[in-house]
Design brief:
- With 198 residues, the chain is mainly beta.
- It has one domain: Beta Barrel (Porin).
- Helices cover 13% and strands 61% of the residues.
- It is built from 2 helices and 10 strands; from the N terminus they run αβαβββββββββ.
- The chain has an 8-stranded antiparallel beta barrel.
- A hairpin with a 4-residue loop joins strand 5 and strand 6.
- It is elongated and about 55 Å long.
- The two termini are 42 Å apart.
- It holds the Pfam family OMP_b-brl.
Length: 198
């Protein structure tokens, strides 16, 4: 076989493999909703005189991705909490009753590692996200503090895991846990949702 024919044969083989691989690739979009909890990972709340920054709220997540194979997918996500109330303060600091609320947003990308089975897939997600927090609290009874600003932003690590059930050829119902790291207040959430594959 001539060199030109060998090159053509190699190109044809590579094209055939690419076509076979692309036949298995699928795109998907999905959402899930669940309970979220913020957790103070350092001295952020203590520095503000707040006793308890562990607040429960609603966590809504939207996802879109591309399955490169039955084992690996790339995923983009957006998640947001509802307003989380802040009411407890450290009265030893003479701050008085502080009331307010804050909410958080997360936008990022992750690699999804899949352990496939006939009807139920287990998965792990590892990635990074940009986070943004907005909110404030205030008190009218404090001689030392009248307002706390909860605003902040940054880029941090995110991870999650879960399982998805193949409800139909192009539809899956899932249960997942996700943890979004920030500089001071992490948010973890567990929820259920749907994804649509096409």
């Amino acid at each position: 076989m001539s060199k030109a024919r060998r090159i053509l044969a190699s190109i044809a083989a590579a094209a055939a493999l690419a076509a076979a691989a692309s036949a298995e690739q699928t795109r998907y979009v999905g959402f899930d909703i669940g309970a979220g909890r913020s957790n103070d990972t350092g001295s952020y709340c203590a520095g503000l005189g707040i006793n308890d920054c562990e607040k429960d709220g609603l966590l809504l997540r939207f996802r879109g991705g591309f399955e490169f194979s039955e084992h690996v997918a790339g995923e983009f996500f957006y998640a947001e909490t509802n307003d989380m109330a802040v009411e407890q303060v450290n009265h030893d600091n003479n701050i008085g009753l502080l009331t307010g609320e804050y909410h958080m947003q997360f936008t990022g990308a992750a690699v999804k590692l899949i352990l496939p089975a006939e009807t139920v897939n287990a998965f792990v997600r590892l990635g990074f996200h940009n986070w943004k927090r907005e909110g404030s609290a205030a008190t009218a009874s404090s001689p030392n503090l009248s307002r706390v600003d909860f605003s902040g932003s940054g880029t941090n690590f995110a991870y999650g895991f879960g399982a998805e059930y193949k409800l139909a050829p192009n539809m899956r119902v899932l249960a997942a846990y996700d943890n979004y790291k920030t500089a001071d207040l992490d948010v973890a959430g567990a929820g259920i949702g749907l994804s649509f594959h096409f």
